[in-house]
Design brief:
This protein is an alpha/beta fold. It has five helices and five strands.
């Protein structure tokens, strides 16, 4: 398989809890070593755990030297969980293929910078248009529709 095929797989994983992980985006992650998927994950319902931490946990020691395909730039800030870029660095992945940059100002290039500073090769991907629609626009629209429905039915 090639990079775009693994990224397509990660994108499909990210769709699994789309609309159920707000306020976090729906992200998918595939860990590949020697052409074989050794770990995969997606953002859980409620937004935690993140896709990267699930995929790394499933990959275990096989993550060292592997390539991680992540649909969105790994987070680089401490929230309710640690930064995903730090988890990828600790797992000693050799390469990270990112589908789309994270526009969140707490991340916005910091995840890529941390990975590169650790000596990890970082590559952009081919799915940016699809990923933007998947991760942000559709989730935002779903939330807005839900808020409208709730407001209409709770008016007295």
């Amino acid at each position: 398989m090639e990079d775009h095929q693994f990224m397509t797989h990660a994108l499909a994983l990210g769709r699994r809890n789309q609309g159920h992980c707000w306020p976090n985006p729906a992200v998918g992650c595939v860990i590949v070593k020697e052409g074989r998927v050794v770990g995969r994950g997606w953002t859980a319902i409620g937004g935690r755990p993140h896709a990267e931490s699930q995929a790394l946990q499933r990959a275990g020691a096989l993550a060292a030297g592997a390539t991680a395909f992540v649909t969105l730039e790994p987070c680089a800030h401490q929230g309710q969980t640690g930064p995903c870029c730090d988890a990828l660095i600790a797992a000693k992945v050799a390469r990270v293929v990112i589908g789309a940059p994270d526009p969140d100002p707490r991340v916005a290039g910091r995840g890529v910078a941390a990975l590169k500073a650790a000596g990890i090769a970082v590559v952009g991907s081919f799915k940016i248009d699809n990923l933007f629609l998947l991760l942000y626009v559709r989730s935002y629209i779903n939330v807005q529709i839900w808020n409208t429905v709730v407001q209409r039915f709770t008016r007295t």
